[in-house]
User: Fold this.
Amino acid sequence: MLFRSRGAVNEVTVHVASLNTRAVTELCIRSMRHHAGMPFDLVVGDCGSTDGSLEMLRAFERDGWLRLEVAPEGRRHPEWLDRWLAACPTRFCGFSDSDVEYRAPNWLRDVVARARATEAALVCGRMQHPPATFVHPRTGAARRLAPRPTPWLLLLDTEQVRGRVTESFGYRDVVDPDAHGGKVAYDVGAAYFAALEAAGLPWAEMPPEWQSHYRHFGGLTWLGARGDGVALRRRAKQALKLATVHRNLARARRGHWGEPSTSA
Assistant:
């Protein structure tokens, strides 16, 4: 097992999907290990990166930081999540986007404590409650967006959800004549959340004052899958975010974040 304290059995496995996001993925891994506040196992899935991510991840695997899974033919984000939840060997199954930076001590310990205190089957960084009307900026498709827990930071209690929630994390549309555009859009994680609620399972989100414990950059995941079609304005925003990533990564490397002597 990975990142395990001597003689202990970890109860949390965190999963991260990566594609051509070398710098921000390294920052995510280093910061999550440095600030976790408790031991955990880490699994990283890569869809065949060509930017040096695979070499970096293989080096971390050799050092015992993580277990690497590679899908060279590609794999969509919800597919990673569905597979990982089904196969997770520990009680708590965590998901993190690769462009999340953990900024304060004990982030994972806090999330697990929240799950225990509330007896929640699902704990998220926060809930998204989108507006009732949405029009896609490129296609013009009109939808009502379903609420969902933020899939970029999520913890599930496998003992509660297994056998009771079988819905996929994938996107799907549901016809609803009363909805804007006649359909309800369930983005990644939304349909799973709806099924969890329908099963009567409790859920919780982290309190607002905890939100500063992590930073979700947004727009820096899956760059290889959509980089060619990104608008110039969006690319400029990505460049600014990446400048912050490289600055913070340099600090994490200098501080040897994630190495056993600096990790919980």
Observations:
- The mean pLDDT is 90.
- Residues 171 and 187 are 5 Å apart (CA to CA).
- The two ends are 15 Å apart (CA to CA).
